[in-house]
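task queued by scheduler; priority normal; single chain, no ligands, no partner chains; default sampling; output format set to structure tokens
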Amino acid sequence: MSHQLPCFVLCSSDQAPHREPIRARLEAKGLRVTFFPMVERDNITDRNLGSYINAHKNKSEYGDVLTPDNVTVALSHLNVYRHILNHHLPGAVILEEDADVAETLVQLLDTKSAECLEHMFGSYEPVVVQLTHVAQAYRSQRRDIGNTLFKMMRPYGTVRQSRGYFVTNAACHNLVKTQYPVWTSADHWEGFVEQDIFRLWALTPNPVWACDPAAELAPANQPVARPANLLDPVHRAWDKVVTENILVRRLPKHPPVR
């Protein structure tokens, strides 16, 4: 496709034997990709880890311990955001190297089409669109995407372990401005929404997933527990009875778990 939205693949190696199977897998689905090198894991050690972390915000807003791996991934995503800003790109898709995609994703990347993700939001709007599966979304906050099978929905609850997402220029600006020094993992999406860094949407059915289904079952870091509030039991009851039964719906997972 000659007019494709930029699609970056974060890759842990610059060696052809590592990259070419990834390229072949994605090109078979119609994607033209650009590999983006991850920060070298060996550069982040236990000794220098603290120089990359906002320890106070990490403790107050996230709570879980950030490991060298967490910081390496977060810095790698920040480098892609800086690239998008430096090259004045309206937006881009970012994929992990273990991502697989639906053949229908390519129709959302054609910048000459009104159905392109780039045209759903202005580059000045801070927006991220999750392309991997989100468990639940609000029923009322939905947008059709032309004549495609996809719908854009606002996620409800925890959103973690994304293998791919679309990000606007404005969202990149906000992430670069607020995420360094690192205070949380790169995929703490609901935390970024709480901080008003961007608005979060998700595509259903999800067009991106992990090549290895077992990878999606890996435990995710959990955010810090908030101080108890007298109204917490009321809020939990409301969420259980009203929100989860009436206001939100569960989203199908693609491909279906076998």
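post-processing summary
- Residues 120 and 236 are 34 Å apart (CA to CA).
- The first strand starts at residue 7 and ends at 11.
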